[in-house]
Amino acid sequence: MRAIAIVLWGVLWLTVWLQEKKPGEEKAGVEKTAGNSSKLVNPVKTSPESIAQGKKAYGFDCAMCHGKEGAGDGDLAESMHLKLKDYRDASALKDLTDGEMYTVIMSGKGQMTGEEGRMKPEQVWNVVNYVRSLAKK
Ligand code: HEC
């Protein structure tokens, strides 16, 4: 009788332990998303200076695909047959946070190559601010 009680007690503790372990794992997942690109905060406030800096860099590195005005009609996009969004349309980038945009510009996506190592982080944020400004017109 006593042996059974001890086994039951052991099983009980095992269940409690396993149940406690689960929320812990979920917590770790939350911490992971906290470091996610969408949570990256733009440290460069948008300003006429930042937008002007971003515009310059955009003209050199982005306009050949995304177009001078952000319409997605750059020469390279045409020759590569890329279908790009029109950044003049405010809804085009509404689901993308500044942090996500920063990550796309740094790391690239699909047929777009990233600027990592070529553009300084601050300059990338200026470009983010510039791309945002395209939609306001
Ligand atoms: C070779 C052409 C090319 C160049 C140069 C380029 N992009 Fe892109 N970009 C793309 C393509 C193609 C996508 C879509 C990628 C996908 O979703 O597969 C894209 C996606 C993006 C996105 C994500 C939102 C969206 O439109 O899907 C942003 C933001 C962006 N580009 C900004 C930039 C900026 C800023 C630069 C300059 C630093 C740049 N791109 C340079 C081709 C280019």
How would you describe the overall organization of this protein?
The protein folds into two domains: 2-34; 48-134, Orthogonal Bundle (Cytochrome Bc1 Complex, Chain D, domain 2). The chain is built from six helices and two strands; from the N terminus they run αααααββα. It has helices at 2-34, 48-61, 63-66, 75-79, 98-107, 121-134, and strands at residues 108-109, 112-113. The chain has a two-stranded antiparallel sheet. A hairpin with a 2-residue loop joins strand 1 (108-109) and strand 2 (112-113). The protein is elongated. The protein binds heme C. Residues 58, 61-62, 64-66, 76-77, 82, 84-85, 96, 101, 104-105, 109-112, 115, 127, 131 line the site of heme C (HEC).
Question: Averaging pLDDT over every residue, what do you get?
Answer: 87
**Strand/helix succession:** HHHHHEEH
Spans of at least 5 consecutive residues whose pLDDT stays below 50 are 24-34
Q: Rough shape?
A: elongated
Strand portion, in percent? under 5%
Q: What's the CATH H-level homologous superfamily of the largest domain?
A: Cytochrome c-like domain
**Bound small-molecule species:** heme C
Proper CATH architecture of the largest domain: Orthogonal Bundle
- How does the helix and strand content classify structurally? mainly alpha
Could you give the topology of this structure?
Blueprint: H1 2-34, H2 48-61, H3 63-66, H4 75-79, H5 98-107, E1 108-109, E2 112-113, H6 121-134
Antiparallel strand pairs: 1-2
Helix pairs in contact: 2-6, 5-6
The protein binds heme C.
